[in-house]
Design goal:
Helix content is 33%, strand content 24%. With 386 residues, the chain is of the alpha+beta class. The longest helix has 34 residues. The chain starts with a helix and ends with a strand.
Length: 386
């Protein structure tokens, strides 16, 4: 069954659920909610595959060549022609995901779900819109970088390392100039990010529904924070991502007269190359210093390049993260990179064997993630230390 047929079948099933609830004049049941949410995630993936396939066919028709295939589940560069999706592992969405996962486990395994050994796979929580599109302040870089689903743990993609624009007006019959676009083949690899809970009393889990949701949400939050730290500053050694701060080919901005000026100079570097400074990523302490800066009169620097209500500077969104060292910042065009995840999603497993004597259980939460950087020169590492 091809993706279009699968999508039509899925839409029909979700429509039947909605019609049944409407006919019975009731709200959706927990199991129906779980199925709808899982169907939403699957529909996003199917739509992405359909759009990528249609774009590839159009490209093939336009150049009369062949399409280079990618492992199943891949999405090309993750930048062109793919349906947009963003990880939802932080903020309110993460709490909702924890509750949804708890309901999914109960619906599949019954009332004793959390005292029965076994694993539950939960589709990676995704959003179809970036917070920037709906005027919401993002709480993490993960929320604004596009995500790419990978069908295999290793994949190859092309990274642009140089571009020389030689476009010019050409007289009739004259030879056209050649622009230089240098692409290097890179290999991406998913890495497992996982952790365990401390032992939890079995009866607490059985008697308190909200405790399970809370634990799951906190574990997802922990995964998200580790992933963000790796995306920003992973050193590329075995078992680690090569983060944005350690990617070769990025630009550098030395400290200017003050942090505000330095950020503007970094944005200029991107603009000169045709990129945009979509976001600045700063350590929370550095951003607090900028927000509380005072003019010589002693008043706060309101009305200048800073929009505190929207957390913007020079019109670009500011995201704070402890994954960026104090005194360092990043300016980023959001088409520079994507976050990768596998087709299995997040796996949660409860184990009672280790705590059998004490009647306690331990949960393991894990997922596989990666980072693909397509345009290193669309990233500027900034020194804020004046």
């Amino acid at each position: 069954m091809n993706p279009k047929e699968k999508l039509a079948q899925l839409q029909k099933r979700l429509g039947e659920i909605a019609e049944k609830a409407k006919a019975e004049s009731r709200d959706f049941t927990p199991s129906e909610i779980t199925e709808i949410e899982a169907g939403y995630t699957e529909a996003l993936d199917l739509k992405g595959k359909i759009e990528r396939s249609e774009k590839s066919q159009a490209l093939l028709a336009s150049i009369g060549g062949t399409v280079i295939s990618e492992p199943a589940g891949g999405s090309g560069s993750g930048v062109y022609g793919a349906a947009k999706s963003y990880l939802a592992l932080t903020g309110a969405r993460a709490k909702h995901a924890g509750a949804t996962l708890a309901n999914q486990i109960r619906s599949h395994h019954g009332a004793k779900a959390f005292v029965t050994p076994g694993a539950e796979v939960f589709a990676t929580p995704l959003e179809s819109q970036s917070p920037l599109e709906i005027q919401r302040i993002p709480t993490s870089l993960l929320e604004v970088l596009k995500s790419t689903q990978r069908g295999t743990p290793r994949w190859e993609y092309l990274r642009q390392t140089a571009f020389t624009n030689n476009a010019a007006i050409v007289a009739p019959g004259a030879e056209k100039p050649t622009s230089v676009i240098t692409l290097d083949k890179e290999t991406g690899e998913l890495q497992v990010i996982a952790h365990l809970t401390e032992p939890v009393d079995k009866f607490l889990l059985e008697d308190n529904d909200t405790l399970v949701s809370f634990i799951t949400s906190q574990m997802l939050y922990g995964i998200a924070r580790k992933l963000e730290a790796e995306v920003l500053a992973g050193d590329g050694t075995a078992g680690h991502l090569t983060g944005l701060l350690n990617t070769t080919g990025t630009q550098a901005q030395t400290a200017g007269a003050d942090p505000i000026t330095t950020l503007r100079l970094a944005a200029t570097q991107l603009e000169v190359l045709g990129y945009s400074a979509d976001v600045f990523i700063l350590n929370p302490n550095d951003w607090a210093g900028i927000e509380t800066a005072r003019a010589t009169s002693g008043s706060f620097d309101l009305g200048g390049p800073i929009d505190r209500a929207a957390r913007k500077v020079w019109g670009s969104q500011v995201i704070t993260s402890t994954g960026v060292p104090a005194g360092t910042a990043l300016a980023l065009d959001l088409d520079a990179a994507t976050i990768d995840h596998d087709t299995r999603g997040v796996q949660v497993e409860w184990d009672r064997s280790q705590g059998f004597k004490t009647n306690e259980l331990i949960a393991r939460v894990e997922g596989r993630f990666g980072l693909s950087v397509y345009r290193p020169d669309a990233i500027v590492e900034i020194d804020l230390a004046a």
